[in-house]
Amino acid sequence: KDLPSVKTMMRGWVRQAGFPVIEVQLKGSDEFTLTQSVFGGSDDEATMWTIPLTIEQGGEITKVTLTEREVTLKKTAPVIIVNSDQNAFCRVKYGQGIISKINVHTEKMNVFQQIQFLDDNYALHHAQEFQLKQLANLTTKIAKVAGKDLIERFVLRLFSVFVDIKDRKKISEF
């Protein structure tokens, strides 16, 4: 499949504000949709980006360039990881059906995918699109699989949400 030119791809990145969030939703039992919108911003239908994505399903990698608001793809495995190599500058918001599958299979994610998954959901929490309780449960689940260092860093970052700005430096030095 032909990729868009660099000029075409970069147009959306340099001529509009913000950055994208890709929402991943199941569509029946054998398909899923990727829908792009402005992260934490307006629901402006005119704002779109050309986004090269890597999608991992059951260890198989697929490369997709998102050039439309929404695209439907074939589901080939229970767990779908979008932006699996973290090359695209975007957030990923998983629908409940997909997030529950990822929760069951976190041990199959590599450490970079685990960090990205936590980081995206942390950012979504700040944008009031992901509940703190869900984030805590997700962190606990990944803590059982990931190393202590990963979770310590993430908890410090999460804890900084609840601390005055003047105390954040002290915590980060700790």
Walk me through the topology:
Elements: H1 6-14, E1 20-27, E2 31-38, E3 51-57, E4 60-66, E5 70-74, E6 80-82, E7 91-94, H2 96-104, H3 111-126, H4 132-145, H5 148-159, H6 165-173
Parallel strand pairs: 1-7
Antiparallel strand pairs: 1-2, 2-5, 3-4, 3-6
Helix pairs in contact: 3-4
Detailed description of the structure:
The protein is α+β, with helices and mostly antiparallel strands and 174 residues long. Helices cover 40% and strands 24% of the residues. It has six helices and seven strands. It has helices at residues 6-14, 96-104, 111-126, 132-145, 148-159, 165-173; strands at 20-27, 31-38, 51-57, 60-66, 70-74, 80-82, 91-94. The strands form two sheets. The protein has a four-stranded mixed beta sheet with strand order 5-2-1-7. Strands 4-3-6 form a three-stranded antiparallel beta sheet. The longest helix is centred in the last third of the chain and has 16 residues, at 111-126. It is globular and about 45 Å long.
- Seen as an oligomer or otherwise, the chain set is single chain
Task: Estimate the global geometry from the Cα principal axes.
Answer: globular
Mean model confidence by pLDDT: 82
Biggest sheet record: 4 strands, mixed
Helix content: 25-40%
The helix/strand order is: HEEEEEEEHHHHH
| Strand order in space, largest sheet | 5-2-1-7
SSE-based structural type:
alpha+beta
Low-confidence stretches: none
Compute the number of strand runs: 7
- Which range does the strand content fall in? 15-25%
Task: Give the CA-CA distance, first to last residue.
Answer: 50 Å
Radius of gyration: 17 Å
Count, helices:
6
